[in-house]
Design brief:
Structural class of chain A: alpha+beta
Order of helices and strands of chain A: HEEEHEEEHHHEHEHEEHHEEEEEEEEEE
Helix content of chain A: 10-25%
CATH superfamily of the largest domain in chain A: P-loop containing nucleotide triphosphate hydrolases
Strand order of the largest sheet of chain B: 1-2
Number of domains of chain B: 2
Strand content of chain A: 35-45%
Oligomer: heterodimer
Low-confidence stretches of chain A: 1-8
Strand content of chain B: under 5%
Largest sheet of chain A: 6 strands, mixed
Number of helices of chain A: 9
Radius of gyration of chain A: 25 Å
Number of strands of chain A: 20
Mean pLDDT of chain A: 89
Largest sheet of chain B: 2 strands, antiparallel
Distance between the termini of chain B: 47 Å
Distance between the termini of chain A: 32 Å
Shape of chain A: elongated
Structural class of chain B: mainly alpha
Radius of gyration of chain B: 32 Å
Number of strands of chain B: 2
Low-confidence stretches of chain B: 1-7
CATH architecture of the largest domain in chain B: Orthogonal Bundle
CATH topology of the largest domain in chain B: MetI-like fold
Number of domains of chain A: 2
Strand order of the largest sheet of chain A: 6-7-8-3-9-10
């Protein structure tokens, strides 16, 4: 704890032992500790009810923390009302004021700050250009498309130049294509302005695309906080492995531990060597996690882990073929085969050898 | 999609209208296919249309008609009513001997008539509305007219009563002989015909309807405003509470609707009267002395208090339904942008509730302006509304024409206010629920 505090002295946002309960019976957020550096893009990712939005609301000041302290720029802000925190916020349904025009919406935070009229107009004009809607100032929010409303919402959160911007599932209401486009735009705005962004979403692609670091929430606890690549490649526990990306599970018992690796006997008796992540000693129950694209069909002889499986189903997806196999008692074992010209033709009910590198197979905590 | 694209024959040519596959113009075909649907919709509304017509359009039309239509003179004295039209009232001379003769004959005939609405009494009452105190002139003359055996009838009548020499009386009779008259409408706005037949304001002492109408409008506005003041926070609370609690509270708001209006109004009498609960409590607490009990009922105060209570739900319901649709994120957004709670409320929340405010105020005001039973019970003489006067004329004085005229004036006032309201607020912006 103390060691961590040393590091956090230059952190911009800090949650310290924060707990939150709405009804006095259930903790929605359990002992949260989180440091966010200045200029960082951190995403809180998790299923609904995992406490991520509650954390955001506590940071924004709309929900008081039941226990613990939140710091902004090394200043405790538990007693600071939301309007004094100077945090920009983009809401899930944008919350653009329907009775004001776009320009009036954008001028609102400037008006509140008592800025003079001409400077207000200047800023509004600039921010509208930034989100590429220079002609839309006179329109009402209801006259804009979903994507345009979204841009205005982002512009409104940025127009008063806050150092910290919170975004609560801002892309949830958009269709897929627009969502992807907006992901890049928000990312570019972040890079250009250097603001700190805390972003909440339940969409893992969004989290992986945009963030510097991702905090995976479940059950009121941060399960893992890391950069997108290590989140995907080195999940710290089964929940993260399941939640991020696709994942094959094999349950078994640890037979032997040797350094970074361990040997696991699966339920049907096969022996598999795996990367020891979340298990201690021989005899521990474990769930092995294996990414579908890391499995090879007809592995070279040199590969340590090879096992025989039966192809159950083939799904043609263009760039790759999804092969559902029955492996070591799991008949929902997915293998992704790249669609190359020289690939071997596969057929259903075929018995095939598959293999993978030991370090790609993670021995994690047991999932029932 | 398909390798062989079909040539599309249905694309509109610039000079040809769009047709269906079998060559019928598209518009015609569309009208034909939707005709049965439209017909069915019309049939479904038919019972309501019929009901509204019978129970609403006809009675109101009749009422409006009655305000300007009063055939008493032509029914009691039909021959005279026709003959008097030839007389030139501005000549300064009494009607001719012939007209007098017809008048006497009609009076004698009418005296024998017992049919309701066609007696001399009816005629006397009708003229009495315009020339107060003239009633006995007609009844006593009719009694004596039978004894006039021959002419000259003019002298004979003048002998019975010299008031028959008054041109004003004959002028009024001539005007009343016309079935259509403005007299009642004028009376409803405190005006009348003077001796020369010109329209003038009534004597200051007799001006009662305009003051009461103004008081009705003023009190209705006050009641509406008080309802708004009380209902706004209540609706806000209801809209922000969790559904279970807000439903329970909503039932409490609607509870008065389950009690008879009479019971509720009587309850206010028990509360507010000088020997009532509130006065008793204040005396008990020493706020006022036993001899200083406050008169809170049978005056304007009583009317306002009980009507605010009765009309409150009509303000709460539209406000609540509008507030319910305003997500809390608007206020949060405003707060996150630096607005204080108060500023955010007035700039962001309040403007969005205006459709509910508009609907609620319109509803309460229009209900209040025509309210009858509560002012009648708790208004005393000071706190009555124009509708109480209308009811008086319909039930007590039996001057239906004046009652109708007052109702027509009230209708015009409401329509005017509604029109004004539409100009200022816009009816399309209302939201009742």
């Amino acid at each position: 704890m103390n060691a961590e505090k040393q590091v956090t002295d230059n952190s911009y946002v800090r949650f310290e032992n924060v707990q939150k309960s709405y009804d006095g019976e259930i903790l929605v957020v359990k002992d949260l500790n989180l440091d966010i550096g200045k200029g960082e893009f951190v995403t809180m990712l998790g299923p609904s009810g995992s406490g991520k939005t509650t954390c955001l609301m506590m940071l924004a000041g709309f929900e008081p923390a039941t226990h613990g302290e939140i710091f902004l720029n090394n200043r405790p802000i538990n007693t600071v009302p939301p309007n004094k925190r100077g945090i920009g916020m983009v809401f899930q349904n944008y919350a653009l004021f329907p009775h004001m025009t776009v320009a009036e919406n954008l001028a609102f935070p400037l008006q509140v700050r008592g800025m003079n009229k001409s400077e207000q107009q200047d800023r509004v004009k600039r921010v509208l250009e930034m989100v590429e809607l220079p002609q839309m100032g006179g329109r009402r929010p209801a006259q804009l498309s979903g994507g345009q409303q979204q841009r205005v919402a982002v512009a409104r959160a940025l127009v008063f130049e806050p150092d910290l911007v919170l975004m609560d599932e801002p892309l949830g209401a958009l269709d897929k294509q627009l969502r992807e486009q907006m992901q890049y735009e928000i990312k570019h705005i972040h890079e250009n302005l250097g603001v700190t962004i805390v972003y909440v979403t339940h969409d893992q692609t969004e989290a992986l695309t945009m963030s510097d670091r991702v905090a995976v929430f479940d059950d009121g606890v941060i399960q893992q906080l890391s950069a997108p690549d290590s989140l995907y490649e080195n999940p710290q526990n089964s929940f993260v492995a399941q939640f991020i990306g696709e994942n094959n599970k094999l349950n078994g018992t640890v037979e032997k531990v040797s350094g970074e690796l361990c040997t696991v006997r699966t339920e049907d008796g096969s022996l598999i060597e795996a990367h020891k992540v979340n298990v201690d000693k021989a005899g521990d129950k474990t769930t092995l996690s294996l990414r579908p694209e890391r499995v090879e069909i007809d592995p070279p002889k040199s590969m340590k882990n090879t096992i025989e499986g039966t192809i159950e189903e083939l799904i043609y997806l263009g760039d790759h073929i999804r092969v559902r196999m029955s492996v070591a008692g799991n008949d929902d074992f997915i293998v992704k085969v790249r669609n190359r010209a020289d690939r071997r033709p596969l057929e259903e009910k075929q018995k095939t050898r598959i293999g993978w590198a030991s370090m790609d197979c993670k021995a994690l905590d047991l999932v029932a | 999609m398909s390798d062989t694209a079909l040539p599309n024959t249905n694309i509109a040519q610039p000079d040809r209208p769009l047709v269906t596959a079998d060559g019928i113009p598209l518009k015609q075909k569309l009208a034909r296919t939707t005709r049965t649907m439209k017909l069915r919709a019309l049939l479904l509304t038919l019972p309501l249309v019929f009901f509204v017509f019978v129970a609403f359009v006809i009675p109101i039309g009749q009422m409006l008609h009655r305000a300007v239509h009063n055939p008493t003179v032509s029914e009691v004295a039909p021959n005279f009513a026709e003959a008097i039209q030839d007389w030139d009232a501005d000549s300064g001379e009494l009607p001719s001997e012939q007209i007098f003769e017809i008048f006497v004959q009609d009076l004698v005939t009418a005296r024998q008539n017992r049919e309701v609405g066609k007696t001399v009494g009816n005629l006397a009452t009708r003229i009495n509305y315009e020339i107060p105190g003239s009633r006995s002139l007609f009844t006593s003359t009719a009694r004596k007219a039978g004894r006039i055996e021959q002419g000259p009838y003019k002298e004979a009548l003048l002998e019975i009563d010299e008031d028959w020499g008054d041109i004003h009386l004959w002028r009024t009779l001539q005007r009343a002989s016309n079935n259509y008259t403005l007299a009642f409408m004028l009376a409803a706005v405190d005006m009348q015909y003077d001796k020369d037949g010109d329209i003038v304001q009534a004597n200051e002492l007799y001006r009662i309807y305009i003051p009461i109408l103004l008081k009705t409008i003023g009190l209705s506005a006050l009641i509406t405003f008080l309802c708004f003041l009380i209902a706004y926070p209540v609706s806000y609370l209801l809209s922000t509470l969790p559904l279970r609690t807000s439903n329970l509270l909503m039932i409490l708001v609607l509870l008065p609707f389950w009690t008879s209006l009479l019971v509720r109004t009587s309850a206010w009498i028990a509360m507010l009267q000088t020997e009532g609960i509130i006065n008793d409590i204040m005396v008990f607490l020493g706020v006022i002395g036993d001899d200083g009990r406050i008169q809170m009922i049978y005056n304007q105060t009583g009317t306002v208090i009980s009507m605010v209570h009765i009309l409150l739900p009509f303000m709460i319901l539209p406000l609540y339904s509008v507030m319910k649709t305003i997500p809390p994120s608007y206020m949060r957004a405003a707060r996150s942008m630096g607005a204080t709670q108060t500023y955010a409320f007035f700039r962001v929340y309040f403007p969005q509730t205006t459709p509910g405010i508009a609907a609620g105020t319109l509803l309460v005001f229009i209900l209040a302006i025509g309210y009858y039973i509560t002012p009648a019970l708790v208004g005393g003489s000071d706190g009555i509304f124009i509708s109480n006067l209308i009811a008086d004329h319909i039930k007590k004085t039996l001057n239906w024409s004046l009652g109708s005229a007052l109702a027509a004036i009230l209708l015009v006032v409401v329509m005017t206010l509604y029109w004004l309201y539409n100009r200022l607020v816009g009816v399309d912006k209302l939201k009742f629920g």
